[in-house]
Specification:
The protein has 395 residues and is an alpha/beta fold. The chain has helices at 14-31, 37-44, 48-60, 127-142, 179-186, 198-209, 266-270, 272-279, 284-292, 296-320, 330-349, 369-384, 387-394, and strands at residues 64-69, 80-84, 90-96, 100-106, 112-119, 148-155, 158-160, 165-169, 174-178, 193-197, 216-221, 225-231, 234-236, 324-329, 359-362. It holds the Pfam family ROK.
Length: 395
């Protein structure tokens, strides 16, 4: 029986080689700001002529900027320092929260240029109405005097990242929403639009800009609860990209019904709404004031939430052997009162706690993590593959 012919490898085209080498060069500059062309050549293994040609293209596209001449102790010509350009393409991040819309602009280094927050109860609005607000927020951000290189959108639900489709968002009541297509149609921006789960994007922001290690679980505690899992410095999303739905882990099978169809889900017992309700206060600001005053009902509400969080997180740590829990969103603000009872619950339930105690820390980015991660993802897509942007900018 004859075997089908095996396709023969084809030589790389000049464009393919340039595309690969452009990414190498920009990565070297991003990792070691202030490097000269000669240093980049040594770091990448490319010739100085190749590096110089690629750097000149990226300077022309405003991805790279030249600084002053480097100091040099020995003889020879001093090289010019190279940096990512602060005026180059920015990432525009959007977060569709259950009760707010957030947007921000970050430059190539991840520095935030501007941010906006709009309170909005999106549970009572159709996808079309909310996405119209998102489009308006994007247009507002785009009026800033900087180029937009890409848009990242964080949403609270299961996302098919490749197609930009939100499959389901129980807390919004949305199903099968083409977020990328709808936003692209409503806003005339000829740039890539990336859509991702808000907890995953928050975890990436924490990895890029926070104080956590390369192995942690980031808990986004808002009205819903999501988890972003980072292992070995890489986001773990599961086979289909739907991992991290910690808020819909049932911790009490006889508990209250959840919008996902199950009972006793973590977010129904330890989310923002049940904590505020149990504390007998109207909102998070009042909850924080009551906690600071030592209010017994507020303290008990947070301790109860910590218990249920401990049940869910102990299972996560026992399964994945993660050394750190990062409390994000509202949990970051509640960390002074959550941390003690949560640590006690983890010490009691995590099998390896005697030898490897779980570290519990507050996110340094807090409620901004998801929108920062969305904007950062748009920037990092350019950094990972700059040649298409450069080619379009120089056309």
């Amino acid at each position: 029986m004859s075997r089908p012919p095996v396709p023969r490898p084809q030589p790389a085209s000049q464009h393919t080689v340039r595309r690969h080498n452009s990414a190498l060069v920009l990565d070297a500059i991003a990792d070691a700001p202030g490097s000269s062309r000669a240093a980049v050549a040594a770091r990448t293994g490319l010739t100085k002529a190749t590096v110089s040609s690629l750097v000149d293209r990226m300077i022309g596209a405003d991805l790279v900027a030249e600084g002053g001449a480097q100091t040099r102790s020995g003889p020879g010509r001093r090289g010019t320092a190279l940096h990512l350009s602060p005026t180059g393409p920015h990432g525009l991040g959007v977060e569709i929260g259950v009760d707010y819309l957030a947007t921000c602009l970050v430059d190539l280094t991840g520095r935030v240029r501007a941010r906006w927050l709009r309170r909005s109860d999106n549970r009572d609005s159709s996808p079309a109405r909310v996405l119209a607000k998102v489009a308006s927020a994007v247009r507002t951000a785009a009026r800033e005097d900087v180029p937009i290189g890409g848009v990242g959108v964080a949403v609270p639900g299961l996302v098919e990242v490749a197609g930009g489709t939100l499959r389901v968002a129980p807390n919004l009541g949305w199903r099968e929403v083409d977020v990328r297509g709808e936003l692209t149609r409503r806003v005339s921006l000829d740039v890539p639009v990336l859509v991702g789960n808000e907890a995953n994007l928050a975890a990436l922001a924490e990895l890029w800009h926070g104080d956590a290690s390369d192995d942690f679980v980031h808990i986004s505690g808002e009205i819903g609860i999501g988890a972003g899992i980072v292992v070995g410095g890489r986001l773990f999303e599961g086979v289909s990209g739907f991992g991290g739905e910690l808020g819909h882990l049932s911790v009490d099978p006889r508990g209250p019904e959840c919008g996902c169809g199950s009972r006793g889900c973590l977010e129904r017992l330890a989310g923002q709404d049940p904590i505020v309700r149990a504390a007998g206060v109207p909102g998070v600001e009042e909850l924080l004031a009551a906690l600071a005053a030592g209010d017994k009902a507020a303290t008990a509400a947070v301790r109860t939430a910590a218990k249920w969080l401990g049940v869910a997180l102990a299972g996560t740590v026992n399964l994945l052997d993660l050394p750190t829990v990062v409390l994000g969103g509202t949990y970051a603000r509640l960390e002074p009162w959550l941390r003690g009872p949560l640590r006690a619950e983890l010490d009691r339930r995590v099998v390896s706690a005697e030898w490897s105690p779980v570290r519990v820390v507050a996110s340094s980015l807090g409620a901004e993590a998801a929108v920062r991660g969305a904007a950062g993802s748009a920037v990092r897509a350019i950094l990972a593959d700059p040649d298409p942007y450069v080619t379009a900018a120089l056309a």
